[in-house]
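Board notes (copied after class):
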Amino acid sequence: TLTQKNVVAMSTQGKQLWQNPFETPYEQNIVTASAHRDRIILGGTNVPLQALAWNTGETLWENPNHSTYMS
Protein backbone atom coordinates (compact mmCIF):
# COMPACT_ATOMS: atom_id res chain seq x y z
CA THR A 1 0.00 0.00 0.00
CA LEU A 2 1.25 3.49 -0.78
CA THR A 3 0.69 6.29 1.69
CA GLN A 4 1.76 9.92 1.38
CA LYS A 5 5.25 9.13 2.71
CA ASN A 6 5.75 5.34 2.70
CA VAL A 7 5.18 2.08 0.93
CA VAL A 8 3.73 -0.37 3.45
CA ALA A 9 3.19 -4.13 3.30
CA MET A 10 0.22 -5.53 5.18
CA SER A 11 -0.72 -9.11 5.99
CA THR A 12 -4.16 -10.47 5.14
CA GLN A 13 -4.94 -10.11 8.86
CA GLY A 14 -4.22 -6.36 8.72
CA LYS A 15 -0.84 -6.51 10.46
CA GLN A 16 1.91 -4.24 9.13
CA LEU A 17 4.82 -6.36 7.90
CA TRP A 18 7.25 -3.62 6.86
CA GLN A 19 7.43 -0.03 5.68
CA ASN A 20 9.88 1.91 3.52
CA PRO A 21 10.09 5.65 2.89
CA PHE A 22 8.51 6.63 -0.42
CA GLU A 23 7.90 10.35 -0.71
CA THR A 24 7.26 12.45 -3.77
CA PRO A 25 7.52 16.24 -3.99
CA TYR A 26 3.73 16.42 -3.74
CA GLU A 27 1.45 15.29 -0.94
CA GLN A 28 0.06 12.51 -3.06
CA ASN A 29 1.11 9.16 -4.40
CA ILE A 30 -1.01 7.95 -7.26
CA VAL A 31 1.38 5.21 -8.22
CA THR A 32 0.26 1.61 -8.50
CA ALA A 33 3.01 -0.82 -7.60
CA SER A 34 3.45 -3.89 -9.79
CA ALA A 35 4.25 -7.35 -8.46
CA HIS A 36 6.67 -9.55 -10.37
CA ARG A 37 7.76 -12.86 -8.86
CA ASP A 38 9.30 -11.97 -5.48
CA ARG A 39 9.49 -8.23 -6.17
CA ILE A 40 7.39 -5.12 -5.95
CA ILE A 41 8.29 -2.60 -8.64
CA LEU A 42 7.37 1.04 -8.22
CA GLY A 43 8.47 4.59 -8.86
CA GLY A 44 7.07 8.09 -8.87
CA THR A 45 7.78 11.74 -9.61
CA ASN A 46 11.42 12.42 -8.70
CA VAL A 47 11.64 8.94 -7.15
CA PRO A 48 13.84 6.31 -8.84
CA LEU A 49 12.25 3.27 -10.40
CA GLN A 50 12.93 0.56 -7.82
CA ALA A 51 12.33 -3.04 -6.90
CA LEU A 52 11.64 -4.13 -3.32
CA ALA A 53 11.66 -7.65 -1.91
CA TRP A 54 7.99 -8.42 -1.22
CA ASN A 55 8.69 -10.22 2.06
CA THR A 56 11.16 -7.75 3.65
CA GLY A 57 10.87 -4.44 1.80
CA GLU A 58 14.61 -4.49 1.14
CA THR A 59 15.61 -2.42 -1.89
CA LEU A 60 16.91 -4.89 -4.49
CA TRP A 61 17.73 -2.30 -7.14
CA GLU A 62 16.89 1.21 -8.19
CA ASN A 63 17.41 3.26 -11.32
CA PRO A 64 17.53 7.04 -10.80
CA ASN A 65 17.45 7.59 -14.57
CA HIS A 66 13.85 6.40 -14.74
CA SER A 67 10.79 7.38 -12.79
CA THR A 68 7.21 6.40 -13.40
CA TYR A 69 4.50 8.98 -13.33
CA MET A 70 1.42 8.81 -15.47
CA SER A 71 -1.63 11.00 -15.33
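Comment from the instructor: The mean pLDDT is 85. The beta strands are 6-10, 16-21, 34-36, 39-44, 47-53, 59-63.
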